[in-house]
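Chapter summary example: a protein plus iron/sulfur cluster.
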Amino acid sequence: MQCSKCGNEAVTFIRYNGTYLCRQHFIEFVEKRVRKEIRKQSLPKGVIAVALSGGKDSIVACYMLWKIAKKDRSREIHAITVDEGIAGYRDATIKIAKKFCEEHEIPHHIISFKEEFGFTLDEVSVKRGELAECTYCGVWRRHCLNKVAKEINAKAIAMGHNLDDVAQTILMNFVRGDMERMARMAPHKKIQPGLIPRILPLRTIPEKETTLYAYLKGFEVSEDECPYAIRAMRGIYRDFIMQLEEKHPGSRHSILKSFLEIEDCLHEKYEAAKLNPCIKCGQPSSEPVCMACQLREKIKRGHE
Ligand code: SF4
Ligand SMILES: [Zn+2]
Ligand SMILES: [Zn+2]
């Protein structure tokens, strides 16, 4: 097939807008929307931290921001990798993240659950009780990212979430009736004391496109999936959205669009919670002891 723009050989067909694109035009198509999204989410000046797991999305997000910062001396990109301690999975992606940062001369900070909380996620898995690994992982990862971002004086944390991830989260919050959580979704417009706002440069790019972009750019990526993902509720939403998109191309974009339509109303209804430093760890929390510390205590008790 030929590229709808220039007639060269196409590398992909974009179903939701009916165009065939060659390598060059596909790369431009992705980069243009990421730049637009970054402008829309207003990228602050100063240090920008990227949550770099080493998975393809985080590598693409990091590369895009690095490219922007290269031409703009008012911004500096740092990468933060959280080592959850998942044997046979995380080690490979950390290696990829390290190599990527070395090649692009990006300062790289690694923080582990073991150092920070005393347990690897594999150890948590044995003692976790009724809560799934992802619950611990999500809460502890947010804690770690915010901690390091604060230490390096970052003005924002960029996450690698793509359109599929964001559509899943919106739908999940909707189905659960959790509008308050919906109101707290990144990108954050309000600055909360002690909490570094998160931005999502790839939120309008479907997963298939971030994968193809990473491939065409020749980035080394890992195909492995986390062994605990199987217990994640998200899987149901992923399958559902994939089926929906198959039958009605453009559904993911519509889900995001609907959220953006009601976003301001949600912010008005659910004011940001008042945050104070956690009495145990000092990270911002709406309760005296933050959720990360509560979960650490729970695991500690399970070990005794
Ligand atoms: S799938 Fe769950 S346990 Fe695995 S890295 Fe993601 S959040 Fe953590
Ligand atoms: Zn072309
Ligand atoms: Zn705490």
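Key point: DSSP finds twelve helices and nine strands in the chain.
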